[in-house]
């Protein structure tokens, strides 16, 4: 671990920021979070394997996990502490290329592997350290986009509330796969595949706190698909589509939506849109299944790759990859509209997670 240190006035709150080392990022930045203002103060930078572009945290165990988004994809684990991050062993291969997302499902660590078009599952030892060999589910299929959909491209994988099902979002096949983890070897087994709009390129999804509504954001078309989720049957059903732009993008600009997030109280949702570099706010006052676009604001930088609500639900943080910063916004308690409050330099910022 290296980097500048500063007086920590966060009261124990931290932000961990992943980056693209191939784009000038330095690894994983640990920052203090001011509980009064939300301001981030970098404390240290941990050098990691190539491109720790996505992070997830086991708050109970105090272990931070990072992908290495590279040709020989892998994952790494770090113990969190007052003095920063401590590596818990070497990089563990995921048996696939280009892991873009990772999440926890019980005692397994899952990765969505964009280049390979697959989902990997690795066991965790008693200390929370991932170990092999990985169990891999290869996706099949393609879409109409001549460059982006020549084959499967898994972009996100996460456990549904309750932990029984695992959902994998595939940009290349215009679908979301519902899987179960085999109790014998942890391998994801396909249960059901939900087809979405052809050529839309689904990239990221988020659950509403009601546990029955899912929002799927598409990268190749500026759309948000509202889905019904049946946890008993493991069934995801599209119900409606909502535009994520308040107005059409300029003729010379292509929008690339990246992330959707929902407030902890279920009253609002937000989507980040690269290309036009905006954050769109949705009111859910008419019900979780009826998001209503209410505001569109600048993301505070260029190419907003990640967007996350802080645990209090009072602020929104955006990782702007190309401008190399993380910008935070205060959220209007009545309308949910983001209002820019500050930013901090983090080269090639790609992901933000919060923890102790």
Structure report:
The protein has 356 residues and is an all-beta fold. Helices cover 0% and strands 51% of the residues. It has no helices and 29 strands. The protein has strands at 14-19, 28-33, 40-46, 55-58, 63-68, 74-81, 84-87, 92-93, 99-105, 108-113, 118-123, 135-138, 154-159, 166-170, 175-181, 188-195, 202-207, 213-218, 223-230, 235-243, 256-262, 268-274, 278-283, 292-298, 304-309, 315-320, 325-331, 338-345, 349-355. A hairpin with a 4-residue loop joins β19 and β20 (235-243). The two termini are 18 Å apart. Residues 1-11 have low confidence and may be disordered.
Short description:
With 356 residues, this protein is mainly β. It has no helices and 29 strands.
Average pLDDT, rounded to a whole number, is 95
| Number of DSSP-assigned strands | 29
Note poorly predicted spans: 1-11
Report the principal-axis shape. Answer: globular
Gyration radius, rounded: 19 Å
End-to-end distance: 18 Å
Oligomer: single chain
Order of helices and strands: EEEEEEEEEEEEEEEEEEEEEEEEEEEEE
State which percent range the strand residues make up.
over 45%
Structural class from helices and strands? mainly beta
SSE topology sketch:
Blueprint: E1 14-19, E2 28-33, E3 40-46, E4 55-58, E5 63-68, E6 74-81, E7 84-87, E8 92-93, E9 99-105, E10 108-113, E11 118-123, E12 135-138, E13 154-159, E14 166-170, E15 175-181, E16 188-195, E17 202-207, E18 213-218, E19 223-230, E20 235-243, E21 256-262, E22 268-274, E23 278-283, E24 292-298, E25 304-309, E26 315-320, E27 325-331, E28 338-345, E29 349-355
Antiparallel strand pairs: 1-2, 1-29, 2-3, 4-5, 5-6, 6-7, 6-8, 9-10, 10-11, 11-12, 13-14, 14-15, 15-16, 17-18, 18-19, 19-20, 21-22, 22-23, 23-24, 25-26, 26-27, 27-28
